[in-house]
Design a protein that fits this description.
It is globular and about 45 Å long. A hairpin with a 5-residue loop joins β1 and β2. The longest helix has 16 residues. With 318 residues, it is of the alpha+beta class.
Length: 318
């Protein structure tokens, strides 16, 4: 694949056939594209479908490995990647002045939301999409605003999710993890289920919590060894976590999920670190909290040509 043209369509990329079950309402944003490209090859029509599907359904593609109360010295450890189109502008994590510098998160310039954030008040929130194009809506609210809503609220995660379920139908499918002193919880908008995250090591990508996709399985399997490398009373070394998050090895074909994107994209998206010319891992984040209330936030960002110059390393009390 050579990337995106100025019009935004893929070139030299395997086209994805339009699934027979694709809802008719999905085609409304494509009408202009079909008119523009009627005189072109039929393949370009498929590329238009492919591009819109990926733009709508591949934002906030992420992998998060969560170690919750799996270590007495480090009760919360998160390691995750955010995947996105390289042309979609965003800002690395910073303390937001709108929240009196209490909230630390990156920002998506398209919708002004975020994919993951924490606060000095021990609150945490992250969101991923659920890869299900059949459930896409013509007009949906931004899922990236949900972490901000929780992080800026005064209520606990269970009460927040109870309110969110009342309007979950206004968003495209998503998972959300939120927590604080009241515990760590996960909501799947697809099932409407709120689940208390049990002590242990969990993985979340673009299906439900702990769905055994190859990269989720690989990340969960690696986390116990990474936790053993942490020493109480010492600043954690994030490098072993970043090495895990930099794994570009695709899964074997017989282990790939079937989410409707076609074999080539299933392969490309199966690695922990996603790398294609136009779409891939944009940032890797490691968040570690120790039993004394110290927090460390590490982040590395990436562009289409590899690592950016921006590397974030913060230590702050909770």
């Amino acid at each position: 694949m050579r990337g995106l043209t100025e019009r935004g369509f893929y070139i030299n990329c395997p086209s994805l056939p339009v699934p027979p079950a694709l809802p008719k309402k999905i085609f409304w944003p494509l009408k202009t594209g079909f008119k523009l490209f009627t005189k072109k090859t039929r393949g370009l029509q498929f590329y238009a479908v492919e591009f819109w599907f990926f733009c709508a359904n591949m934002s906030i593609m992420c992998l998060w490995i969560i170690a919750y109360e799996a270590s007495s010295d480090f009760p919360l450890v998160l390691a995750g990647n955010r995947d996105e189109f390289f042309k979609r502008r965003s800002r690395p994590a910073y303390f937001w002045p709108e929240y009196r510098l209490e909230l630390l998160a990156g920002q998506d310039f398209s919708e002004r939301g975020t994919w993951m954030g924490v606060t000095r008040k021990k609150r945490l929130a992250l969101v991923t999409n659920i890869r299900d194009f059949k459930a896409l809506k013509e007009k949906a609210l931004s899922r990236g605003m949900l972490p901000l809503e929780f992080l800026g609220a005064e209520i606990g995660p269970e009460a927040f999710f109870a309110r969110l379920l009342e309007k979950a139908q206004n968003y495209n499918p998503f998972n959300m993890v939120a927590g604080g002193p009241d515990g760590l919880f996960c909501l799947s908008s697809q099932t409407g289920k709120v689940e208390a995250i049990s002590p242990g090591i969990h993985g979340l990508s673009n299906a439900s919590l702990d769905t055994p996709w190859p990269k989720v399985f690989k990340g969960r399997a690696a986390m116990p060894g990474l936790l053993k490398g942490l020493t109480a009373g010492k600043e954690p070394d994030p490098e072993p976590f970043f090495q895990l998050l930099a794994d570009t090895a695709p899964a074997p074909d017989n282990k790939l999920p079937d989410t409707g994107v076609g074999l080539e994209w299933e392969r490309a998206l199966s690695s922990i670190f996603v790398a294609t010319p136009a779409y891939g891992t944009r940032c890797s984040t490691v968040y570690i909290v120790d039993s004394s209330g110290n927090a460390w936030f590490f982040e590395r960002t990436f562009g289409p040509k590899g690592p950016d110059d921006i590397q974030l390393s913060l230590h702050f009390p909770l």
